[in-house]
Write a structure and sequence with these properties.
By secondary structure, the protein is α+β, with helices and mostly antiparallel strands. 34% of the residues lie in helices and 29% in strands. The chain is built from eight helices and eleven strands. The chain has a seven-stranded mixed β-sheet, with helices on both faces.
């Protein structure tokens, strides 16, 4: 599997040298690009991403006015944000799984997220909003190189009313940027309300190159 990688021009040669020429290979380039002969599995997906390279003042200035007003309201409330690694048995895993089932969408299995947290604790970054000492909202990000990906989140009614997710996402943007993260991936387009929340936080829509299956019967070189 080559996730988010562009297939090189000599892909067949490199696979042969590695002894992988006969094995199925999944290609999912980060952006549309020329592809070798392969079977399309899924088309392009539109992802929402935030560039964290600009200074914090610029990032805040690019927030939508309504989003910024909600953030200011959360900052002036009794909400407090804490950042930590994700313990493999954290309650967020069960809360997110229950929420996904109720709303009819799929996430990673909770056991897989827990295994990731246990195997690579430094690559997890959990932000929790507390209201008068009680947790009311969570956002979990997974780190990979100089990038981070929003993974799962949850908020209670109290957290929603207090705009806790605005405070969490802004806090995550500031924290990740200060620790060398240059790009924050907020996932694919989903529902109008969620997409609007992410866009107003400064996210832009970026197309991927789709997912392709390259297998030797599909990639034989024709004789010249």
């Amino acid at each position: 599997m080559l996730p988010r990688a562009y297939p090189p021009d000599d892909l067949s040669h490199q696979l042969a040298l590695a002894g992988l020429a006969r094995l199925p290979l999944l290609l999912s380039p980060e952006a549309p690009c020329p592809m070798p002969r392969a079977l399309p599995i899924t088309g392009q997906r539109k992802m929402l991403q935030i560039d964290l390279c600009p200074p914090e003042t610029v990032l805040r200035a690019t927030l939508h006015q309504k989003w910024r007003n909600q953030l200011r309201r959360a900052e002036q409330s009794y909400l407090r944000v804490r950042q930590s690694r994700l313990p493999p048995d954290h309650p967020l895993l069960a809360l997110a799984a229950k929420q996904a089932k109720a709303r009819g969408y799929q996430n990673w299995p909770s056991a897989l997220t827990a295994a990731f947290a246990q195997t690579a604790p430094p690559q997890t970054s959990l932000f929790t909003a507390h209201l008068r000492g009680h947790p009311v909202a969570h956002m979990l990000f997974l780190l990979h190189g100089t990038r981070a990906t929003y993974h799962i989140g949850h908020t209670s009614d109290a957290g929603r009313n207090a705009c806790a997710h605005n405070l969490l996402l802004w806090g995550a943007m500031r924290h990740l940027s200060r620790h060398g993260i240059t790009l924050l991936d907020l996932g694919p387009l989903t529902t109008p309300a969620i997409d609007r929340f992410k866009r107003r936080a400064g996210a832009r829509v970026v197309p991927t190159g789709g997912t392709w299956l390259r297998w030797s019967p599909l990639a034989r070189v024709r004789p010249t």
